[in-house]
């Protein structure tokens, strides 16, 4: 073992550690395996934080070349489990080993980087497609859910890419032609929760009975439910039209309402009522990070609040040039926001620290009314752990999330977009052209 090998492994910030190790090894020929395993973990995490998630694997690969004893650490299941959780944010083992899981996640992320995907146009034959506009999309590991302006939700199986179910809300009197329009979906592998503008929330157990209404909306008290999201622990609704009731939070397990409050959408009260008769530009958006932090916005303000300490605002910012509401999204501990000057920035959800910024070029505008809640020529954006996706002029453009580096244009033109979503394996978009649903699968084969 020599210093030259260490120079390959070491990165800026690790040099003091390496100096200490070289001094220590002169008196100790045998290294404890837990010590080497912890070193490999730290090298990978440091590389991921400074150069991006794809840099972790080459960093520890160099480390494993030091000697046969160190190569043996590469077979440590606890090491790969910890690295998969830390770098890829994955807690569930899908493949045979945690090393296989890590390799799969790495290769899939690399496919995102080089635009290597399988493209599919999804079809559903239980209605006249031209009569519907898709307003929102949700992805899980197994399914894609699409919410439409008539209140229905269609579920697709991602492995077969087939339409498997359609769910309709319970009927009741309608106040305005779009009161049943789907405003948000929460999707896991086993459960689907969807909400409509009138405030009704329905729960579906996948492969179980039909929808059950978990919450009956009352627009006279709460206003219109303009956006709805959540996670395995919380449901979060963003309302407009009634002052002082912008946010509603429910406990996912008990389905009990645990918080009501906030003034974020108070200036949009009149526009909230208008949504019932005309699907104008999105008034606001709310997304939840993996740290139980909700990020919400309107056209002029962005804020983050703590779901574990309900009512506690962590950060808030007025946006002078206005926010493109349809281009605000959250992934892990980062969020994307685009302003009306077409300047996009990625920030940390807890303190709004800027990670990168860049200018979105190409056709498209920054909002407006129209089919599906987004006008023709509008801009829609989303983010996953490694990439930013923004659709303008019918073309989806992709940037690196770490440095804001432009990567490529996706080759398929989708027309005027109505919704766009990404996770760590798929990208999905809906178009106002024949209510088409587009799907890209980047998973490693």
From TrEMBL:
Where do transmembrane segments lie in this chain? none
What is the name of this protein? WD40 repeat
**What is the source species?**
Macleaya cordata
Identify the taxonomic lineage of the organism of origin: Eukaryota, Viridiplantae, Streptophyta, Embryophyta, Tracheophyta
């Amino acid at each position: 073992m020599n210093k030259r090998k260490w120079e390959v492994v070491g990165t800026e910030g690790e040099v003091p550690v390496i100096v200490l190790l070289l001094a220590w090894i002169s008196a100790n020929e045998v290294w404890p395996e837990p010590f080497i395993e912890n070193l490999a973990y730290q090298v990978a995490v440091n590389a991921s934080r400074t150069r991006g998630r794809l840099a972790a694997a080459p960093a520890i690969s160099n480390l494993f070349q030091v000697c046969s004893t160190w190569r043996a650490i590469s077979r440590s299941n606890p090491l790969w489990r910890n690295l998969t959780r830390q770098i890829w944010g994955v807690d569930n083992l899908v493949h045979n080993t945690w090393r296989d899981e890590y390799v799969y996640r790495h290769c899939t992320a690399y496919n995102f980087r080089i635009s290597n995907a399988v493209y599919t146009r999804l079809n559903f034959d239980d209605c006249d497609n031209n009569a519907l506009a898709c307003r929102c999309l949700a992805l899980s590991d197994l399914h894609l859910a699409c919410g439409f302006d008539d209140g229905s939700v269609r579920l697709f199986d991602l492995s077969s890419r087939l339409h498997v179910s359609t769910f309709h809300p319970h009927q009741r009197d309608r106040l305005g032609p779009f009161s049943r329009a789907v405003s948000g979906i929460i999707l896991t592998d086993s459960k689907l929760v969807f909400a409509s503008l009138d405030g009704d929330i329905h729960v579906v157990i996948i492969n179980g009975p039909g929808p059950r209404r978990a919450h009956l909306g009352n627009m006279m008290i709460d206003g219109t439910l303009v956006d709805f999201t959540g996670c395995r622990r919380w449901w979060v609704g963003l309302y407009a039209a009634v002052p002082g009731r912008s946010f509603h939070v429910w406990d996912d397990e008990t389905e009990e309402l645990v918080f009501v409050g906030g003034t974020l959408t108070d200036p949009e009260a009149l526009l909230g009522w208008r949504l019932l008769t005309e699907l104008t530009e999105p008034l606001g958006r709310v997304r939840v990070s993996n740290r139980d932090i909700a990020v919400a916005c309107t056209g002029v303000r962005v804020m983050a609040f703590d779901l574990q300490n309900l009512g506690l605002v962590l950060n808030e910012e007025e946006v002078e040039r206005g926010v493109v509401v349809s281009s605000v999204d959250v992934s892990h501990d980062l969020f994307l926001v685009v302003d009306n000057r077409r300047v996009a920035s990625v920030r940390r959800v807890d303190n709004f620290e800027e990670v990168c910024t860049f200018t979105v070029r190409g056709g498209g505008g920054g909002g407006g009314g129209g089919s599906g809640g987004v006008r023709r020529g509008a801009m829609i954006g989303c983010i996953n752990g490694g990439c930013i996706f923004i659709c303008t002029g019918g073309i989806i453009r992709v940037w690196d999330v770490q440095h804001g580096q432009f990567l490529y244009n996706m080759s398929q033109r989708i027309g005027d977009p109505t919704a766009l979503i990404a996770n760590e394996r798929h990208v999905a978009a809906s178009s106002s052209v024949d209510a088409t649903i587009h799907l890209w699968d980047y998973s490693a084969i």
